[in-house]
Amino acid sequence: MHGAPLPEETLRALGACLAETLVAAHTVGVTHAGLSPTAVLLAPDGPRVTCFGAARAAAPDGTPRAGLPGLEPGSLAPEQATGGRPRPPGDVYALGAVLAYAATGHTVPDRQELPPLLRSVVPTCLARDPAARPRAADVLSALLPAGASATTGAPTVVDAAARSFPLPGRVIAAIARQSAEILAADLPLPSGS
Predict the structure, then answer these.
(1) Better-scored residue on pLDDT, 147 or 77
(2) Which residue has the higher pLDDT, 14 or 64?
(3) Of 29, 35, 70, 125, whose CB is crowded by the most CB atoms within 10 A?
(4) What are phi and psi of 40, to 5 degrees?
(5) 27 to 32, 69, 155, 181: CA distances (angstroms)
(6) Residue 70's pLDDT is what?
């Protein structure tokens, strides 16, 4: 967040990119099972999604996952927290939590805290009942600008974000600072080198 919520243009691009990523995964039968604010890396050429399978790695199906290290409780779908098998509706819940965090600084906001763009999307994603949540494709459609559509064979939302991902200056400065710190780190060499 680096000081403030992301602007609406960035929220739209972020949400569309993440939804498109989930659509692609769900289409081939893959569930992310670990999407959270810390699993999304922001870069000037678009977001990167990490931590695939975090819920599965933390505990086998049937084992309650609430409170386990590495899993963010605000992003973990209720059915996964109690041990349910990770499924696409759980990813959509996590997508709603990520967008809520990017817009407000926490994963379960009051509806009025959300910018108008997300007031209908995030609450439906965060529905406790998995059957009441939209599909990732529905979230993608809701976040695309008016007149745009997600069609196969056309350039994707991710392609468009790679050309121009609208990060605020404070976030770009934070990325540059973190990159400089990593490049300047004095790492120990393995013995014998």
Answers:
(1) 77
(2) 14
(3) 35
(4) -115, 115
(5) 12, 29, 18, 39
(6) 62
Structure tokens at 163: 């050309």
Output the 3-class SS for the chain: CCCCCCCHHHHHHHHHHHHHHHHHHHHCCCCCCCCCHHHEECCCCCCEECCCCHHHHHCCCCCCCCCCCCCCCCCCCHHHHCCCCCCHHHHHHHHHHHHHHHHHCCCCCCHHHCCHHHCCHHHHHCCCCHHHCCCHHHHHHHHCCCCCCCCCCCCCHHHHHHHCCCCCHHHHHHHHHHHHHHHHCCCCCCCCC
Q: Indicate the fold that domain 8-184 takes in CATH.
A: Transferase(Phosphotransferase); domain 1 (1.10.510)
pLDDT attached to residue 167: 80
pLDDT at 155: 46
What tokens does 151 get? 């069609």
Smallest CA-to-CA distance from 22 within 107, 96, 122, 73 is with 96
Nearest to 96 by CA among 55, 126, 137: 126
Interhelix angle 8-27/88-104, rounded to 10 degrees, is 170
CA-based nearest residue to 18, from 123, 167, 158, 172: 158
Predicted TM-score (pTM) of the model is 0.79
Where do the structural domains in the chain lie, given as residue ranges? 8-184
Structure tokens given for 168: 């605020």
The per-residue pLDDT for 160 is 54
Give CA–CA dist 99/93, Å, rounded: 10
